[in-house]
Amino acid sequence: MTLHNDDVRAIAALNRIRIEDRDVEATAVALSGIFGLFDALAQVDTTDVKPMAHPLDLVARLRPDRAEPVTQSGTYQTLAPDADDGLYRVPKVIG
């Protein structure tokens, strides 16, 4: 796919990117090369290729999915500067 200068300006406008006039030609060449790679990839026959989520054959170790109570409020209460009976005391901010 070959992009022209007007195509580059339109792409830049859609993406809110400012491209200086002196850089439009080089950007068109670079983007044309990238789109050429996409075209080459589209031509590859992948009918016998199995889709995969990762290039390495890894298995994720999973823990059992069960709810467990998390009660660390006592720990947090001891760290608070002013706490009592499960409540945090804070300075008055509205007069």
What does this structure look like?
The chain has 95 residues and is mainly alpha-helical. It has a domain at 5-42. The protein is built from 3 helices and 2 strands, in the order H-H-H-E-E. The chain has helices spanning 5-14, 21-42, 73-79, and strands at residues 83-84, 87-88. A two-stranded antiparallel sheet has the order 1-2. Strand 1 (83-84) and strand 2 (87-88) form a beta hairpin. Helix 1 (5-14) crosses helix 2 (21-42). The radius of gyration is 29 Å and the shape is flat. The mean pLDDT is 88.
Structural class: mainly alpha
Model regions low in confidence, pLDDT < 50 over at least 5 residues = none
Rg calculated over all Cα atoms: 29 Å
Q: Helix segment count?
A: 3
Strand content: under 5%
Mean pLDDT: 88
User: What's the total number of strands?
Assistant: 2
Largest sheet: 2 strands, antiparallel
Helix content: 40-55%
Shape summary: flat
Distance between the termini: 68 Å
The side-by-side strand order for the widest beta sheet comes to 1-2
Helix-strand topology string: HHHEE
